[in-house]
Specification:
Layout lengths: L2 H9 L4 E5 L2 E4 L6 E4 L2 E5 L3 E3 L4 E9 L4 E8 L4 E11 L6 E2 L4 E5 L9 E8 L5 E2 L1 H7 L20 E3 L4 E2 L18 H4 L9 E2 L4 E3 L2 E5 L2 E6 L2 E7 L2 E2 L3
Antiparallel strand pairs: 1-4, 2-3, 4-11, 5-10, 6-7, 6-9, 7-8, 8-10, 8-11, 11-12, 13-16, 14-15, 17-18, 18-19, 19-20
Length: about 240
């Protein structure tokens, strides 16, 4: 995956921009030269999410520094990812998380001058900081290889975001009929395009109930039916 794809998971598809990199810089609050052990991404006060299965190692508040913070340990990856300057925290210490679990809401608590998310990455063996940008670009979801097999990185029970409008079908494949919009619940209809068939809108959050991989296609079962998550190089659900 690219760093952009990995960040789409963390930000749930919300807009962001890189505002400060890893390394030496003039601290925006203290105005002194300090090493920045993470990367800052300016954004709105948007929810931020876990990458995959892990555990909330630590959460708390650091005045004049990290503000509201959460560390999530990812044993498979050998790292802990830090989320700093949160407006609020949505997880409890010691609890398990999965891909799409809401960690909190980005903010500007602690030593901060704007709403943003500071992402830090620490090695679980040494607890030393790593350059998050290098790590993010090399991240590969669980169950994926060069061919993207297995569950293609999607986890049952986790929540994902539609990157495009997608039809809801009665089964995992284009050979199955498109569901009628009238067959959906009122709640599901609110996230569809007004039409005869159930066409979910881009940006809709969906919960994964099952995954089927067929050749270059990955299909996800959601409460409303089946939707295409990936097809060849195209990704419809992130």
């Amino acid at each position: 995956m690219s760093s952009e794809s990995t960040l789409r998971i963390i930000f749930g598809g919300a807009a962001y921009r890189r505002s400060s990199g890893y390394g030496w810089r003039i601290h925006p609050v203290k105005k002194t030269k300090k090493f920045h052990y993470g990367v800052d991404y300016a954004c709105g006060k948007v929810p931020v999410y876990a990458l995959e299965s892990g555990t909330v190692y630590r959460r708390g508040y650091q005045a004049g520094g990290a503000g509201n913070y959460v560390y999530v340990k990812y044993p498979r990856l050998g790292v802990a990812v830090a989320y700093f300057h949160l407006t609020s925290i949505a997880v409890k210490q010691g609890k398990s998380v999965g891909r799409g679990t809401k960690i909190g809401v980005a903010g500007t608590t602690g030593g901060s001058t704007e709403v943003h998310l500071h992402i830090g990455v620490r090695n679980l063996s040494t607890w030393k900081w790593q350059n998050p940008e290098t790590w993010l670009v090399n991240y590969k979801p669980a169950g994926t290889g060069s061919s993207g097999g297995g569950s293609a990185g999607y986890r049952v029970g986790s929540t994902y975001t539609l990157r495009a409008n997608v039809y809801v079908r009665s089964g995992p494949g284009t050979g199955y009929a498109k569901k009628l919009r009238s067959a959906l619940t009122a709640g599901a209809k609110a996230h569809t395009v007004p039409s005869r068939y159930a066409l979910l809108k881009k940006g809709t959050r969906v919960t994964c109930k099952e995954v089927k991989v067929t050749g270059s296609e990955v299909w996800m079962k959601i409460p409303s039916g089946w939707v295409c998550a990936r097809k060849a190089r195209k990704v419809y659900i992130m």
